[in-house]
Amino acid sequence: SASGGKYWWQQHKLDETFRPWFASYVDVTATPAYPFQKMGSTPNRDALLSFIVSQPDNPCTPSWGGAYTLDQADDNLDLNTRIARLQQQGGSVAVSFGGLNNNELAVGCTDQAELTNAYKSVIQRYNINTIDLDIEGSDLTNQQVAARRAQAIAQLQKEYKASGKHLSVWLTLPVTPQGLSVDGTNEVATFLSNHVDISGVNVMTMDYGQSLLPGQSMLAGSESALIQTERQLGILYQRAGLPLNNATLWAKMGATPMIGQNDDQKEVFTLADAQGLNSFARSHGLGRMSMWSANRDITCGSNYTTVKVVSTSCSGVNQGNQTFATLLSNGFTGNISLSPQLASNSALSQSANTPDNPATSPYPIWSATSAYLEGTKIVWKHNIYEAKWWTQGDQPDDPVLQSWQTPWELIGPVLPGEKPIPQPTLPAGTYPSWAGTKTYNTGQCVLFQNVPYQAKWWNQGASPAAASSNPAGSPWQPLTQAQISAILADKSSPCK
Asked: What is residue 251's predicted lDDT score, i.e. its pLDDT?
């Protein structure tokens, strides 16, 4: 055929060992940070980390959400460490490029070689073999951008094939109950005409707006969207000289609902919708199921009163003891990736008897005599921990039955090749030292054993040392590591 040769054709046959997979999107830069590394201990271990976009002042430089370069994400978010922790527990990751906000790399990076290298730098950085291209909004309407994107991905797949590897590529596109838009079908056609081996097309079954017919439920709209997309893909592959049967077409499709409250106030994707969509997907042999997002898969707290306003950290519906991930993933038993670990287990499995080395540890080594503020990170037995509250003398790996019994949160292993990251500390004299004879008003700050404290109310003679044993009753509250960083960054202080 004129479609690129026998190998490319064979890649589009349904693999006999294929198993449909489930993976939640995780918004890497959302606040508060979502501890996706904990997903490794759950049945739904895989994560789609999102979104890689162009750095605002350099369109050919990949960034996480335009906020962090790849190096900054490692230093500030411990991203590589968290990925390694997820992998230690059997999870896998893929990376999603694009999204609704910011610019996907191909938009502003017009040099073809630089664009290819930009994609490659992300793939190599995280040692992945599955990527997701989330193309929507204005990124979807420019055919020149689409051609650049497809040509870069085709080049990467060619290079991977030459080295005996495979790069799996998913296109994630907006959809309505009537199927893909013209821009969506054009995107697929552009990838096919450039001989990209598309692993599948994942449709965003969400935010339908006026395209959702009167009385049509979110579940019915999503089922219709999938049926129409399967029909469209059949035509697109036929036109590309690659006729595929229905079973193969369904296996090359995915669905991603926005769980709970959607951006359109009238649209709510319920737990019942999730169960129904899962049943539909399994009966039709859908190859992938995802959701937006793991960050949101929890009932909003009682203090979040306007549930019709979309939250990035809760679903807006009462989930009881259920999760959308559990309902949507039922029967999707495959893995997002068969890629190697970010760092092999053998490289990470250092003996606990081997002393931690300050020269190869990103954070200070834990000391029983040191006091640690909330948010402080340390290294202990070749693992990184973060303080959940002020602590002193609590060994990070003490076995506890409940997570609330320890002040330490395990982030993940120290990776080979790590170097110390400079830690924010207040210069001497920033605040006066605490004195038992002085009176302190609400909001005033002092230094006590090199730790900054702020007065919660008027006090005299009350040592800040008591704040650790009786935090509710003490008039002193230690500043957090985040507050110290903010003071150093803009010279502002919460202290009066």
From this structure: 96
Core vs surface per residue 169-179: b (16+ CB within 10 A) or e: bbbbbbbbbeb
pLDDT tens string 377-398: 999 999 999 999 988 899 999 9
User: Which tokens hold the place of 40?
Assistant: 């490794």
pLDDT greater than 60 at residue 349:
no
- Strand-pairing partners, residue 446, are 453
Strand 47-55 and strand 93-98: pairing?
Answer: parallel
Highest mean pLDDT among 11-15, 149-153, 420-424, 483-487: 149-153
Q: What is the DSSP string of 178-245?
A: TB--HHHHHHHHHHHHTT--EEEEEEE----GGGSPTT--HHHHHHHHHHHHHHHHHHHHHHTT----
> CA-to-CA distance for 152 and 161, rounded, in angstroms?
14
The tens digit of pLDDT for each residue in 257-280 reads 999 999 999 999 999 999 999 999
How far apart (Å, rounded) are the C-alpha atoms in residues 15 and 32? Answer: 40
DSSP secondary structure letters along 73-88: HHHHH-HHHHHHHHHH
Whole-angstrom Cα distance, residue 337 to residue 334? 9
Model pTM score: 0.84
Using DSSP bridges, classify how beta strands 476-478 and 288-291 pair: parallel, antiparallel or unpaired: unpaired
Question: For residue 181, with 0-12 CB atoms within 10 Å meaning exposed, 13-18 middle and 19 or more buried, which class applies?
Answer: middle
What the block records as the tokens of 451 is 């730790």
| Strand order, beta sheet including 476-478 | 445-448, 451-455, 476-478
Helix, strand or coil for residue 101?
coil
Cα–Cα distance for residue pair 221/217, rounded to 1 Å: 6
Q: What is the pLDDT of residue 16?
A: 42
The count of residues in the chain is 496
DSSP H or E run through 54: strand 47-55
Encode pLDDT of 202-212 as tens digits.
999 999 999 99
E runs forming strands in 425-485: 439-440, 445-448, 451-455, 459-460, 476-478
Q: What residues does 410 pair with on adjacent strands? A: 385
Residue 336: C-alpha distances to residues 198, 257, 310, 339 (Å): 15, 18, 28, 9
Which of these ranges, 112-116, 204-208, 478-482, has the smallest mean pLDDT? 478-482
State residue 18's pLDDT score. Answer: 66
Distance CA(35)–CA(80), nearest Å, equals: 13
Mean pLDDT taken over the chain: 90
Please determine, for residue 164, whether its predicted confidence score (pLDDT) is greater than 80: yes
d(C-alpha 278, C-alpha 44), whole Å: 15
Q: Strands 383-387 and 377-380: what pairing? A: antiparallel
